[in-house]
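Progress note, sequence design subtask.
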């Protein structure tokens, strides 16, 4: 039986927060992200969404310019958990626009010292425009932090091998449409294990994509 091979994309842990958006303005970046997901994927957000905020004194006594915690309390009500200057809420998908609005205000007024408001969402999906036969699909984590801004943590699997030239135009169009730059070294060969429930990752040759015949 031939080994099933796909193509995966995931940045290493060494790059820290993940990928920054190509658009510097957070409203433009968020809009581009939503359009990218609508056009290229079919799936849903995970329902377990956590929001964190700190009070006016911050984690270590730093003075916060934007009243993140006060606004979060007014928006989401009593927190699920609180300790000192820190509070955490568990919100529903319907409250994501409110969380983004708070993030945008806090980010715009931030003094760039320490985080005062953050939340993260994750979209599980399969690709549109192609027969997605991957084991468990893909996901995209999107972090919103008023100190660090907006950044992405993707774990993509594409249902074709790296040398499948017939799918190269689709991949290149998707990379162009992405709200962040997909970097060539972070792609890997994904070989399905004998059990058929996971992948074994193998490195690709340097410049495998840019040196391709139709690149």
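Output:
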């Amino acid at each position: 039986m031939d080994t099933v091979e796909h193509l995966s994309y995931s940045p290493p842990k060494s790059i820290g927060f993940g990928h920054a958006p190509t658009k510097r303005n957070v409203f433009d970046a968020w809009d581009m992200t939503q359009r990218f997901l609508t056009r290229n994927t079919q799936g849903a957000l995970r329902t377990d969404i956590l929001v964190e905020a700190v009070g006016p004194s911050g984690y270590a006594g730093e003075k916060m310019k934007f009243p993140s915690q006060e606004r979060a309390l007014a928006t989401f009500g009593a927190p699920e958990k609180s300790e000192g200057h820190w509070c955490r809420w568990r919100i529903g998908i319907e409250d994501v626009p409110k969380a983004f609005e708070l993030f945008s205000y806090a980010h715009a007024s931030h003094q760039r010292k320490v985080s005062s408001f953050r939340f993260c969402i994750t979209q599980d999906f399969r690709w549109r425009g192609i027969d997605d036969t991957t084991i468990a699909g893909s996901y995209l984590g999107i972090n919103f932090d008023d100190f660090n801004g907006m950044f992405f943590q993707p774990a993509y699997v594409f249902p074709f091998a790296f040398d499948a030239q017939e799918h190269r135009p689709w991949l290149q169009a998707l990379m162009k449409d992405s709200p962040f730059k997909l970097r060539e070294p972070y792609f890997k060969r994904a070989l399905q294990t004998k059990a058929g429930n996971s992948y074994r990752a193998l490195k690709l040759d340097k410049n495998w994509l840019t040196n391709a015949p139709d690149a």
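DSSP finds four helices and ten strands in the chain. Work on this subtask will continue into the next period as scheduled.
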